[in-house]
């Protein structure tokens, strides 16, 4: 299974970012700061299907050098209290344990993440047997953001963690607002 090359996103404060606003049908807006170098596809359909945001950067050969997937969930129609820390921890632990056997690691190490509008957990796994066109590193988790839950998966070949740092800055900047016109 491999997880497929990294774009150098400056790790120092002050790299260029854009504030992006994503419409969550029937559930307001998600606003976050995103590195200007990152492209994205935003897939949304209706008020019942969670939207998916896929961030990526292409190399000179038009190949993705990383992929960051974020799904936005809300409580209506799904499990209640999804932004509670104990729920998030259990969900991320289950996902990690399901993936652990495909990685180099022997046990799952959960780490906490705190954002502007909530908390969550994540883990990092490595697959040294990843092929040339596969990703070697996986960072996966979930973060409560106001009334929604962001579930994220970063696939990269970035051994230095530059992409993870940029992803965490974006996640930590995220905020959810309910619009009155919805």
What are the key terms here?
182 residues; three-stranded antiparallel beta sheet; seven-stranded antiparallel beta sheet; alpha+beta; disordered N terminus; 39% strand; 2 helices
Write up this protein.
The protein is an alpha+beta fold and 182 residues long. The chain has two helices and ten strands; from the N terminus they run βββββαββββαβ. A hairpin with a 2-residue loop joins β6 (111-115) and β7 (118-126).
Describe the SSE topology.
Elements: E1 17-23, E2 29-35, E3 39-43, E4 52-58, E5 64-73, H1 85-100, E6 111-115, E7 118-126, E8 137-145, E9 148-156, H2 162-173, E10 175-177
Antiparallel strand pairs: 1-2, 2-10, 3-4, 4-5, 5-9, 6-7, 7-8, 8-9
Q: What does the average pLDDT come to?
A: 88
- Give the CA-CA distance, first to last residue: 42 Å
What general form does the structure show? globular
Low-confidence stretches: 1-12
């Amino acid at each position: 299974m491999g997880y497929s090359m990294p774009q150098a996103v400056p790790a120092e404060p002050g790299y260029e970012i854009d504030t992006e606003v994503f419409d969550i049908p029937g559930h307001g807006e998600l606003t976050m700061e995103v590195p200007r170098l990152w492209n994205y596809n935003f897939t949304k359909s209706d008020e019942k299907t969670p939207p998916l945001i896929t961030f990526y950067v292409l190399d000179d050969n038009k190949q993705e050098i990383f992929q960051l997937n974020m799904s936005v969930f809300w409580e209506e129609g799904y499990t209640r209290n999804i932004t509670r820390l104990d729920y998030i921890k259990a969900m991320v632990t289950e996902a990690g344990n399901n993936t652990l056997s495909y990685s180099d690691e022997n046990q799952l190490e959960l780490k906490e993440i705190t954002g502007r509008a909530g908390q969550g957990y994540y883990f990092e796994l490595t697959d040294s047997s990843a092929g040339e066109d596969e990703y070697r590193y996986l960072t996966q988790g979930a973060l409560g953001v106001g009334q929604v839950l962001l579930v994220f998966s970063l696939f990269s070949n970035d051994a230095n963690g530059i992409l993870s740092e940029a992803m965490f800055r974006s996640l930590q900047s995220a905020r959810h607002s309910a619009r009155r016109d919805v």
